Amino acid sequence: MKLKALSLLLCSALLFQNCTSKKTETTQDSTTSTIKSIEKVDFGNLPSGEKAELYTLKNANGMVVKITNYGGIITNWLAPDKNGKYVDIALGSDSLKDYLDASPYFGALVGRYGNRIAKGKFTLDGKTYTLAQNNGVNALHGGKKGFDKVLWNATPIDGEEPQLKLTYTSADGEEGYPGKLDVEVIYTLQKDNSLKIDYQAKTDKATVVNLTNHAYFNLTGDFTKEVLDHEVILNADKFLPVDETLIPTGELKAVAGTPFDFTKSFKIGARINDPKDVQIKYGKGYDHCWVFTDTSNKLKNVASVYEPNSGRVLEVFTTEPAIQFYTGNFLDGKAKGKGVSYKFRTGFCLETEHYPDSPNQAKFPTTVLKPNETYQTTTIYKFSTK
Ligand code: BGC
């Protein structure tokens, strides 16, 4: 009897120990400033007085990704070169002020509608909605105060693959869009030196949604250098020609025989100044949407970029149907950070997304989200070397 009681006691003590050790592993405490693989520091105050925070995610290899809940911006991203040296390869700044002063969406979460909507207007279920024309005559990247300029709620989730969960509720009518939209974005820094971004959204009225991340990369880690020597592959056999205001004409054009063919590796600079190509002229280089050959919504490898000096390779995987490949042609030195002012073509973006202007182009895959549906996409940016 005594023995039975003793073993029962031992058992429950063991059980308790198990429970508590498990608890420390999975506890998420957003009030403590330091947890195992995520650290939180203040990132300064917004003009509204709200406080922004900066989270540092680290994995066991030494990859570091810093993300602020202001705009969900990836501020720093340390990736290894062929000698194992980790250097920041993401354009941006260490200071909130720089982002508030001038940022061409550096590293930010873009929404409610990433990319352009022609003339800032679209019609849904017979009703016309008017958006801010913040890019010439067009609407760009969600409006004057898009998701890149709002404060998200952040929940750090510690673990071998640390996560930062960001949520934001966009009010019905915000920036002209219909429906209250609940958005959740989870950044996961994975063991294999990749960053996974899971996007989810739900609405209470039919609306349009196209979420992306607007990270600018320079795989040399030297932000004063142009990215023209980077070698790019895009697994896309078509692209969307645009008009002079960068709105798709509606045509899906084969890339074969054009400077837009990256189905085999080409240096960014090889054909970027082709004087005969009117599309290059309109984009001042590459600033177009490529449509993937694999049209499934499965996670697939869609792009890879290799920088020969450092040996860095960036691969992109996504469930989305298209990608805006933008070569920083509008960087003009106004945006500053990390000791430099960012000049012409010193960074490139690979913005996974649905096609621009889909709300006005019935033939494009739909970007309409209805109340009974869940918007769900995933994109992975993976670093390696060769
Ligand atoms: C657009 C560019 C624009 C840049 C920054 C890109 O997604 O395609 O035209 O200059 O974002 O706003």
UniProtKB/TrEMBL annotation:
Alphabetical keyword list: Calcium, Carbohydrate metabolism, Isomerase, Signal
UniProt catalytic activity: alpha-D-glucose = beta-D-glucose
Keyword NADP: no
Extent of the signal sequence: 1-21
Family in the record: Belongs to the aldose epimerase family.
SUBUNIT field: Monomer.
Protein name: Aldose 1-epimerase
Organism: Emticicia oligotrophica (strain DSM 17448 / CIP 109782 / MTCC 6937 / GPTSA100-15)
Lineage: Bacteria, Pseudomonadati, Bacteroidota, Cytophagia, Cytophagales
